[in-house]
Amino acid sequence: MVTLYNISILLLRFAYALASLFNPKAKTFRRGRQEQKQQLQRTFPLSQSQALVWFHCASLGEFEQGRPLIEAIKSWRPETKVLLTFFSPSGFEVRKNYEHADFVFYLPWDSPRHAVWFAENIRPALAVFVKYEFWYHYTAELHKRNIPLISVSSIFRSEQIFFKSYGNLFRKMLQSFDHFFVQNKESVDLLASIDIHHVTLAGDTRFDRVYQIIQEASGIPLAAEFKGDQKLVVIGSAWLDDMEILYPFINENGQKIKFIIVPHEIREEFLQSIEKSIKGKTIRYSAAHGLNSHEASVLLIDNVGMLSRLYQYGEFAYVGGAFGEGLHNILEAACQGIPIFFGNKAFHKYQEAVDLVNRGGAFEVGSFLDLKSKYELMVNHPEAYLLACEVTRQYVVENLGASAKIVDYSKKIISSWKAA
């Protein structure tokens, strides 16, 4: 089985090498690892008088789950060194200058040689792998050297290979972890079914991070002026597939409510397409200053970084991505305690989306008519709207505190660390 695993890693490396010839992201992925190889060797080993904690994240989303832990540890003991590694360039390129990490690198490919080098030269007091990050050689080598390894915000499903009759190697990988901090009860039960009991039901650290962002968020005067005293729907991270069912909804309701649209990608072609498809007056954020923005029915956001602060102006939210590869972050909207809509195809792997649908705080929609009927149900029955608001608000409150549980555990390990 180990041989097959090694072959699969080699095939994956070959696939990335091939893709790098014509795919910019794959090219960045491959070049970044090549360029960092010598830099890693020059940086480590350190002359360690202080503990180092290694955080590994696949990409940007997982980084946001690890971020509250990094910042809590740095706040508690600033002299603690933090190594942050990424698998994907979409995480590394955005966070390579992250201020709370002392070192940021790509994770070298999982191989016996790389794993041994990492364990010998990094010598972490604690290794923290976020969510889905399970690498056989790294986990085995850390376990062999008695280096504490934990998995945080992890979530397991019965269809995963760990729970199949042929998944012995992958179960062995899980056994190398000292502790799991999982998101839901199903994960606790699944791990117990393969005799893994060093598990804490902690929840998702993203709740803590998003809640903090929302609490500290400043207002956006232009958005407030645009909204006035009317009801408003914030459409976040919208793709073309989302807009196809939203156009008729906007055109039908544009005289009664207002809309803020935040496209997933700020491309001129997409922005123009949105403007052409909407019957009412649309104004771009970049051009709205100094104009009577309240006269428009749609405010089109043509920059990045504002979405989390815009949800505070909405009575409803629609979050995009679920008609394509996957639903985008709905927690920012949930923290505002408003009903949330999203597509009905690619949301099932997001625990918070499933939970909120089951509780009645979020609504999956498959068409314009579906969206219209579910929206009108709440408009015509205020008690249903208020219940949905309370559900989303309460759901966030219930899930706060995962970071504190993990940090408390981590502090004990870091405090007991002694330089070799």
Q: In terms of topology, how is this protein built?
A:
Blueprint: H1 2-19, H2 24-43, E1 52-57, H3 60-76, E2 81-86, H4 89-95, E3 103-106, H5 112-122, E4 126-130, H6 136-144, E5 149-154, H7 168-175, E6 179-182, H8 185-193, E7 199-201, H9 206-216, H10 221-227, E8 232-238, H11 240-253, E9 258-263, H12 268-277, E10 282-284, H13 285-288, E11 298-300, H14 307-310, E12 316-319, H15 331-334, E13 340-343, H16 351-359, E14 362-365, H17 368-380, H18 382-398, H19 402-416
Parallel strand pairs: 1-2, 1-4, 2-3, 4-5, 5-6, 6-7, 8-9, 8-12, 9-11, 10-11, 12-13, 13-14
With strands numbered from the N-terminus, the spatial order across the biggest sheet is 3-2-1-4-5-6-7
- Intertermini distance: 34 Å
Count of β-strands: 14
- The CATH architecture term of the largest domain is 3-Layer(aba) Sandwich
Helix content: 40-55%
CATH level-4 homologous superfamily of the largest domain: 3-Deoxy-D-manno-octulosonic-acid transferase, N-terminal domain
And the CATH topology of the largest domain? Rossmann fold
Shape: globular
Number of helices: 19
Work out the count of structural domains.
2
The rounded Rg comes to 23 Å
* Classification by helices and strands: alpha/beta
Biggest sheet descriptor: 7 strands, parallel
Low-confidence regions: none
Mean pLDDT: 94
Strand content: 15-25%
- CATH structural class of the largest domain: Alpha Beta
Q: What are the defining features of this structure?
A:
alpha/beta, Rossmann fold, 2 domains, 19 helices
